[in-house]
Amino acid sequence: MKLSVGALTLFVASVGAFSPANVPSASSALHSTTAEAPVEKAPVQQVTRFDRLKKNYKGFQKPVQDGDVEDLSFSYDDFATAVAETSYSFERNSIVKGQCIEYEVKGVIVDIGAKASAYLPEAEAALIQPPGSIVDDLVPLNEELDFQIISDEDENGQLMVSIRRIQYRSAWETIQQMQADDAILDAEVVSVNRGGAICLVEGLRAFLPGSHLAGKMATEDLIGQILPLKFLEVNQENNKLVVSNRKAVVETQMADLSRGDLVDGVVQALKPYGAFIEVGGMSGLLHISQISYDRIEDLEQVLQPGMPVKCMIIDHDKVNGRIALSTKTIEPSPGDMLRDPARVFDMAEESAERYHTKMEEERKQRESAARDIVLGLGDSLDGLGEDLEGEGSAGSSDPLADVSDSLDSLLS
User: Fold this and answer.
1) Are residues 278 and 328 in the same domain?
2) Distance between CA atoms of 153 and 165, rounded to whole angstroms?
3) Looking at residues 68-83, what average pLDDT do you find?
4) pLDDT tens digits along 299-314
5) Residue 177 buriedness (CB in 10 A; 0-12 / 13-18 / 19+)
6) What domain range includes position 114?
7) Which of 338 and 10 is assigned the larger pLDDT?
8) What is the spatial distance between Cα 342 and Cα 150, in angstroms, rounded to a whole number?
9) CATH code at 238?
10) Which of 315, 330, 355 is the last residue of a domain?
11) Residue 64 has pLDDT above 60, yes or no
12) What are 343-363's pLDDT values in tens digits?
């Protein structure tokens, strides 16, 4: 009886295990497989104690003893003061020190101590850039220079710098000082135009008017020549710089010229009233009345442009740079300039010496005549002086004596 009950219990349990409630359907099995699929997780790396120590390691640090700090000559206060006095200004238009460290195709990489290297464009490398020059020829590497910051930081923290703008400002300062000193400078002509020429002065372009060229014309032949100049106008605000060649030449040449000097010249141009002669870079006028003692009907029969001549200075205006010339004063005989100009120029020194001797004799004669006139006037005034002295002695020596006596009587 006991065995039968145990067998029945075993049978019922077996049947319950295989009942529909306990057996999953195909759809539920598929859904269970899709929803409950295991998710793979990345393996977690365990940081070892050695890795943590390595990350936090700051290098060897010497232990500070109690006496070490006292022995230091540079204290914390000194360090704070040094930091406060150190300027790290990287603002626009600031002037900083730096070194060019690497050439680029159209510029240079510059170390100015900022968080990123600065960039120097080729156009900003120098104020004076000769034709055909490259950036390698304009700035050296590994040499401390001054740079002006001309931009703000870009997205990479890079600044743009310039050397040209520093040189530009320095050039204007030099020019203003030269103008104040009224100095004469030498400059090269770089181009010509209808109005005159362009010269390079301290790296700046200066205008030379054609009317201020001394004995020259504004042609292509003038390019490359070095001319003495003086300033006519200096205006930095309007970027205007005007110079004069004639003013400089007049100041240098006229200082050594005086009336009666014999000079060599070249005929520049002929006019109805005379000829213009170039003398030492200046233009002098040889008036038609000063060419010969004889009357000249046709000036072109006597002088031609480009003809070398010798003239005597008879007058000059050093302020405006004008000189008056004469050839009739060196004629051996009147009319020789019309008949044989070459003979006049060959005997110019001898004729000039005779002319000076003659002028000196005439000057002495005029002085003697003037002295005789003064002496004659002195003799005629002697009697008048004696008469005046007699009248003075006859009267009171003090014309106010009577007035003084009257005043004394009134006051008493």
Assistant:
1) yes
2) 19
3) 67
4) 888 888 989 999 998 8
5) exposed
6) 95-166
7) 338
8) 68
9) 2.40.50.140
10) 355
11) no
12) 888 888 888 888 888 888 888
Tell me phi and psi for residue 311, to 5 degrees. Answer: -135, 160
Same domain? For 238 and 273 the reply is no
Going from the C-alpha of 359 to that of each of 43, 211, 224, 333, 371, the distances in angstroms are 123, 36, 45, 16, 18
Residues 101 and 160 in one domain: yes
Instruction: Indicate whether 16 pLDDT > 60.
Output: no
- The neighbouring-strand residues paired with 159 are none
Tokens read off for 208: 């030379």
Is the distance from CB of 254 to CB of 316 less than 8 angstroms? yes
Residue 382 included in any domain: no
Q: Per-residue pLDDT tens for 269-327?
A: 899 899 998 887 677 899 999 999 888 888 888 888 989 999 998 887 766 667 899 99
Q: Are 221 and 246 contained in the same domain?
A: yes
CB atoms within 10 A of CB 355: 17
The reply to whether 286 falls in a domain is: yes
Count of Cβ atoms closer than 10 Å to residue 326 Cβ: 19
Both tokens assigned to 218: 């504004």
Q: Can you tell me the distance from the alpha carbon of 164 to that of 129, in angstroms, rounded to the nearest whole number?
A: 10
For residues 344 and 265, state if they share a domain.
Answer: yes
